[in-house]
């Protein structure tokens, strides 16, 4: 087929999904390069790769949009750029146009970061990316893998007009005076000898968590630098408060960003933090202050984006000097991204499936009925993620910062979003809420109203948010577990030392929980006579709530735990003592409940008693992080990992942990509460270690369950106390043992444990 015919087909396929031509072409162009013009790959699954790439681009743009405060900086920068007469426009690459590219008649807008399906980050503009250097260096050249090299800028203070002494500032610890790749590996964790948490997916990690080994996405490279004296090329200086932002470009298209922060506090006691410390602190600010929850957000990459936007603008055809900022392309893009945010999230899910088929499937839904919900989702997401954004009476999102800035421009008002009927239909037809991350697809249905699930990031395993310390000590496991065994520890032929441990294995060889073990767990949870309650000397929950007047510990239920074999044991992956770690396999469905409990989860297949359904996964927070978080937002699903609190082995309030699935979580976040006689029970499961501060929570069936039955578990909430920082709700579980009924605490307790 002629290249033009290929392109036409691709564009037609994308248009059928409601994507505009202008969005398709630049992405397609990059995809052609990436796939080495292999049209058969691009056309696979109804151009799924192309759709994925477009949605990724939209998502990336949306991320930029969320970074409100940085957007302000960008705006200043762009203002300055267009006013500066000496902007060098860099060098254009003239000889790259292929037959296919020729057919794409639009001027190239480089796709800055195009992620491959596996989550790898590929900088398609790496080959012509600018590289920058410190003024204190002479010309050096280092070659980096062009596929992996993202444009990145080392920070080297340099003397400026406003701050001639800047060059004398203490250099960040460990930052070499040569341009060395700046990776996201945590200095601290390396120093402590801690292994990173076992987080398998790049997409799911936040700045706090190590990025996966071997992934090119994990490294933010500082490419080769050619050193220029910045003073000769400075084109933009923007004072903001007492700080000054400067941008410099060289004749070869290199960009340098320098922010001089005037109020130098600390005087002689100033010490130099490491670059890694600084980056983490900054990402913490972004998370806490600006609520940038995207785990892929990185300050370094953001600075890269500023630099590449600068270049992109600087190499564009000349704009009239007085061009008003509201017409600037980069900002328009961000606004667009905001409008499309929810769509992008839904599209990402859709991209994994056959989009066209789903559009057809959902065509009977009324787009009008969804319009309100969608806009609602959008404005909610904007409010949640842009700290200084508000919405005016007409539904316009307003940039509050501009109200205080004299020369505010037309950039501040985002017009009401108009979402096409196709987009709305697609949102309503998601057939896999896990976005393909689990081994089974989990669809959602709403037979009650036109609501769609609120956006959240699906992740199969819990991840550390910021401060939580989760220790994985391989050596320790080996000592405690069956290093001598091989194959399947549950096979009768095996003489596995774990089998002779007190209690033996928790699982049968069919992968179910041993009935005795399960019954004990159930009765421990439901029967007061069986309960062992442990009390902390200094309860982390009470400390986090009020450090000044420390309330006595309210007690924590000691729980029986499962110990699974792991990769460091001598057995294989087929070992029957590995269940929770292999993830969920049950056919499930998210559905909207009809009695005011919102979404729920049900099984589509019959389940026997003792079957593992799923893990409770979420962000691993410290208790103080949880309390801090719950004071500013309503959390729906925090679970405190207190099964061993109060025991002698557990010490250190700072190591008290919990899980929160509100923003990042797995399918368990849809499971509703049922008092006492729920059909699921959560059981602590030790996989990577026997550290009693952290464990997995596996949800197992407490009885046989019929297909289409709703799954529930007892959250353990007491509806009349404030111990759990959960959003209070009026319980509608319908259980005869419901605790949300007013009665004396004594009779309530006896009822509960009846
Ligand atoms: C972990 S979420 C469960 C999924 C939730 N229903 C949803 O729509 O996303 C917990 C929230 O669900 C609601 N919920 C769960 N169980 C409930 C019950 N028995 N009665 C009323 N609301 C319940 C409460 O709003 C609670 O904060």
UniProtKB/TrEMBL annotation:
Keyword Zinc part of the UniProt annotation: yes
Annotated spans, Disordered: 88-140, 154-218, 383-405
Protein name: SET domain-containing protein
Domain of life: Eukaryota
Composition-biased stretches (Polar residues): 122-140, 181-195
Compartment annotation: Chromosome; Nucleus
Keyword NADP: no
Domain SET span(s) in chain numbering: 586-716
Species: Brassica cretica (Mustard)
InterPro entries the UniProt entry points to: Pre-SET_dom, SET_dom, SET_dom_sf, SUVR4/1/2, WIYLD_dom_sf, WIYLD_domain
Entry-linked PROSITE patterns: SAM_MT43_3 (PS51580), SET (PS50280)
Subcellular location, principal: nucleus
Keyword line: Chromatin regulator, Chromosome, Metal-binding, Nucleus, Transferase, Zinc
Any one annotated GO CC term: chromosome
GO terms for MF: histone methyltransferase activity; zinc ion binding
